[in-house]
Amino acid sequence: MMERRVSGMVFVLPFIGLYCFLLILPFVMGLWISFHRADLFGSRHWVGLDNYVRLFADPVFYQAMGTTFTLAVLIVPALTLITLLLALALNRASRSAAIFRGLFFSSSVLSVTIVTLIWRFVLTPDSGLIAKLLTAMGIEPLPFLSDPNLTVPALAITTIWWGLGLPMMLFLAGLQQIPQDMYEAASLDGANRWTTFFRITLPSLRRTTILVIMLQTAAQLQIFGQAQLLTQGGPSGSSRPIVLYIYEVAFGRWELGYAIAAAEVLLLLILALMLAQYWLSTRGEEVQR
Amino acid sequence: MTSLSLIDVRKSYGATPVLDGVTLEMGDCEFIAFLGPSGSGKSTLLRIIAGLEMADSGEVWLEGKRIDALAPGGRGVALVFQQYALYPHMTVRENMAFGLRNAKVPNTEIAARITQAAQTLEIDQLLDRKPGQLSGGQRQRVAIGRAIVKEPKLFLLDEPLSNLDAALRNRTRVELAQLRQRVRAAVIMVTHDQAEAMTLADRIVVMNDRKIQQVGAPMEIYDRPANRFVARFVGSPAMTILPAQGHAASGGYAQVQLKNGTLIQTRVSTADLPDDGEIEIGLRPEHVTVTAPGSGTIDGEAVIVERLGDRTLVYARLDDGSEIVAVDRGDSSVRMGVRVGLQIDGACAHLFDADGTCHHAERDQL
C-alpha cells in the first residue's frame, strides 16, 4: 500500500514540481513583494499593507477598473451571442460552411500586433475604412481613437473580431454533441423551428455557454495588448484597462510592490467572479445524461 | 378497416437502392413486426412511415388519409426510438408533455393523459426526475409513455428491446404484449430478433435484400416459409438445408435422395416441383431425432452437443461433410465425437427448388 503511494507520487512529482515552481512560487513571491516598496533593481523596503491602502485611495486605479468592467460587459455578451449565431449558421457539412468556419477562425491565429494594425486601418479618423465609408455617405467621420466616448467601444469591437474563433469552435463542438435523434423526436413531437431551438438546442448548449462566458470573462478582464497598441490607454486614461495600468506602474514608474498589489486585487476579483459564475450555473442543475 | 397502407414504396441513397417497391396493408389495431437482418431496409421503411425519411416514390396512407407529404408531427404516428431519445434537460413529465404542448392540447387534458399513462406504465414515482436519473428499463417506459400520451393512430417501435439486458427484455416483452391490449392502435415494431417478432406480432413482415420476403402470421412463417431465406432466418437453431436429388414420385409425393444415396419420402406434392435437377431438402431440428447408430434414416458424428435442459441439440456431421441439427431428450447421453443415428421425419420436410422457392408438405386433413 505504502509502496503504491510512493510510486504514484513519483509519477505526479514532475508536474507538481513544475506547477509549484511556475505558479505557486511566483504567486507567493508576488504576495510578499506587494508588502514592500520595491523597484525592478531589487531594493525592498517593508511597508506592510501600505500599498493596498494607497491603491484603494487611487482614483486612477478605480478609473482603470471601471474601464475594464465596461469592456468586459461590452465584449462578453456580444461575443457569446455572435459566436453562437455563427456556430448555428455554420453547423453543417457543406463545403462553404467549412470555408467560412476557417475564415472566422483565422482572425484568432493573428498576433495582437497584426490585429491592432488592421483595426487601425479601419478606425483611423482621417483615412480609415469606416471614415471613407462615412465620408462617401456624406457623414462626418467619427474620431474612434481620440474621442473618450468612442475609444472603449472601438477596443471592444477589435477584441470581438479577434476573439470569434475559439468560442465559435466551442459552440460548434457543443452542437455536434446533440444527438440527431433528439431533433427527430422533436419533429415527431410537432415542434417548429423556434420551439426546437429554444427547448432542445439552447438547453443542450447550457454547459458550453457557461464555459464560453467564464473563459471570456476571465480573458477580457485581463485585456492589455489591444489597448496598449491602439490607444495607449488614452485619451486621458479613458481606455486604460487595469492590466495596462499595472504595466505602467511596474515598468513605467518602477513601483513593483504597488503594481503587484493591484495585480493581487485583480486576481482575487477574477477568482471571485469565476466562483460566483460557477455557483450560479451549477445551482439547481441536476444529474443529466 | 385498413390502418396503414404502403403502396409501392421505393427509396435509394444515391445509387444504392434500400427499398424496392414495398406494398403492405395493415389491419385495424394490428401488431406487425418488421423482421430482417441489418441492411434489409426495415428501419428505413419505419422512418419513411414516421416521416423522418422521404420515399423516392410510392404512397403512405393512414386510416384513409395520405400522409407521405405531411410533417412527422402531423401524421398521427408516435415513434419509440431505439436509444429512447428522451430530452435530457426535461423531467419525465415535461418529456411526455412536450408533444402535447406543441399540439396545443389544453393543460388539464395534458395532466390527465400523463397521469393515466404514468399509472399504466408504473412510472408515476418518476415524473419529476430527469432521464439521467433513470435506469435503462425506466427510460424505456418513459419513451413508451411519451408515445402513449399522444394517442396516435399508429405506434412505431424501433428495436424496442435491444438495449435491455436479458431478464428485463423478457419482462418488457410481456409488458408490451399486455400494453398492446390496452391501447387501441396499430403497432409496427422493427426487430432483428425473431423471438420478439414471434411472441408479439399478429403478423410478421420478413424483409431481406430491400424487399418483403413474406408476410404472415408467426406460425405460418415458421411452418410454411416462402423461400430459402425465410426458412433459414426464422427458427433457432436454423433449419438444416441439404442438397438432394428429386426422385420418382410415390403416390404423388416427391421422394428425394441425399448425396449418400439415402432416400427420404416427403409429403411435398410433385405437381409443383420442377421436373428434375438439383433441389434442396429443409429440415427443422425438431423433425430430426437422435437414435442408436444404424437404427435411423442416416448416421452421423456428433460435433457439438448443446444441453438446454428440456432437450438437447445435437449438431451432427454426415459422411459427406454436411451438417444437420437434431434434437434429443434433455437427459441425452450423446457426447461430442460419438456416432449417432438420425431419424428424419420426411413427412415434415420442406423442399426448395433452384430459385429458392419453398415447397411445403401437405397437411393431413383433420
Automatic annotation (TrEMBL), chain A:
SUPFAM superfamilies in the record: MetI-like
Membrane topology listed for this record: Multi-pass membrane protein
CDD domains xrefs: TM_PBP2
GO biological process: transmembrane transport
Record-annotated ABC transmembrane type-1 domain positions: 65-277
InterPro entries in the cross-refs: ABC_transporter_permease, MetI-like, MetI-like_sf
Pfam families: BPD_transp_1 (PF00528)
Keyword field: Cell membrane, Membrane, Transmembrane, Transmembrane helix, Transport
PANTHER family: ABC TRANSPORTER PERMEASE PROTEIN (PTHR30193), DIACETYLCHITOBIOSE UPTAKE SYSTEM PERMEASE PROTEIN NGCF (PTHR30193:SF41)
Annotated family: Belongs to the binding-protein-dependent transport system permease family.
Designated name of the protein: Sugar ABC transporter permease
From TrEMBL, chain B:
Gene Ontology CC entries for this record: ATP-binding cassette (ABC) transporter complex, substrate-binding subunit-containing; maltose transport complex
A Pfam family reported for this protein in Swiss-Prot or TrEMBL: TOBE_2
Keyword Ion transport listed: no
Single GO MF annotation: ATP hydrolysis activity
Keywords, in A-Z order: ATP-binding, Nucleotide-binding, Transport
Similarity annotation: Belongs to the ABC transporter superfamily.
Name used for this protein in its record: ATP-binding cassette domain-containing protein
